[in-house]
Amino acid sequence: MYHSVMDDPLQAASTLGGIVHSTKVFREQMELIARDYNTLTLADVLLFVQGEKEPPTRSVAITFDDGYADNFEVAMPVLDQTGVPAAFYVVVDCVENARLPWPARLRYAFYTTKKSTWAESNGTLWPLKSFEQRDGAFLKACDDCCQLAGARQEQFVSGIERDLDAEFRSAENPMMTWDQLCGLTRRGHILGSHTMTHPNMAYLPDADLQIEFAESKRSLEERLNSPIDHFSYPCPALSPHWRDRTVEASAQAKYRTAVTTNGGPVRRNHNPLCLRRVRPTKDIEGLRWNLECTFLGRSV
């Protein structure tokens, strides 16, 4: 489960935080997987869990969440050079509006603001004089924001950006373009939905839930002229990030697979709409350890 790949991850410390891998480490990890493991696509994984295909032992599927521009510009060349296919799950509104997902925008606002306090909507005043205070306020805002979707979510985020006078601006598009998404499919990679606006699906009312599932699928299929069969559950804050009702809703939206951030292996006969994944480490041996433990059924 990857997100972003950059030559210098520190350049995104105030927005993406720790979800960035360095190009060097990512290349070494893909070389490890190509050399010592077998790679699958999400389509292969679906056939496996349905009992229609027996993959080689020690098989690994690579996924990317969110849809950052570096997925195409940096990660894809590495994947193609090592012969590793991947699935890329994109947040539709972020691609459409060329803006970072809301957790990155809030992180930037709270960690870079020159304001000394933040007033919550209920009047609670949060001091912002130390990193620990900023981090606490940021986490509280994330807990509130992850339960919102669509226009209400954007109002919440833009309101905090105004209050803290700290809106992230970049001369470059931080997200992939529609042309770049098409370029991924032309090279044999899979595209999937990561919702419209990146909420925690387990906390949404039914009406918002349906929009995030169905409208993201419809929008992607319309813009890319290709079926979208795969979904990834955002896990921006709070727990859990999926429930039985969200699994049912994903089936109603006609997704064929959905991945979670729950750790562990994928086994035959697992429900394809709540598949587990493995978190990568920031070094080579750590990733090998996580994979080997996962194949043995041990927690990591």
Can you describe this structure?
With 300 residues, the protein is an alpha/beta fold. It has 2 domains: 4-97 and 180-295, TIM Barrel (Alpha-Beta Barrel), CATH 3.20.20.370; 102-164, no CATH class. The chain has 11 helices and 11 strands. The strands form 4 sheets. Strands 3-4-5-8 form a 4-stranded parallel beta sheet. The protein starts with a strand and ends in a 5-residue tail after the last helix.
Largest sheet: 4 strands, parallel
Query: Helicity level, as a percent range?
Result: 40-55%
The CATH homologous superfamily of the largest domain: Glycoside hydrolase/deacetylase
The CATH topology of the largest domain turns out to be: TIM Barrel
Q: Which word captures the global form?
A: globular
H/I helix tally: 11
State the separation between the terminal residues, measured CA to CA.
14 Å
Q: What structural class is derived from the secondary structure elements?
A: alpha/beta
Mean pLDDT: 97
Order of helices and strands: EEHEHEHEHHEEHHHEHEHEEH
Low-confidence region ranges:
none
Class of the largest domain, according to the CATH hierarchy?
Alpha Beta
Brief synopsis:
With 300 residues, this protein is of the alpha/beta class.
How do the helices and strands line up, and which of them pair or pack?
Blueprint: E1 4-6, E2 20-22, H1 23-36, E3 38-40, H2 42-49, E4 59-66, H3 69-82, E5 86-90, H4 92-97, H5 102-112, E6 117-119, E7 125-127, H6 131-145, H7 150-164, H8 178-186, E8 190-193, H9 206-224, E9 230-232, H10 244-252, E10 257-263, E11 275-277, H11 284-295
Parallel strand pairs: 1-2, 3-4, 4-5, 5-8, 9-10, 10-11
Antiparallel strand pairs: 6-7
Helix pairs in contact: 1-3, 5-6, 5-7
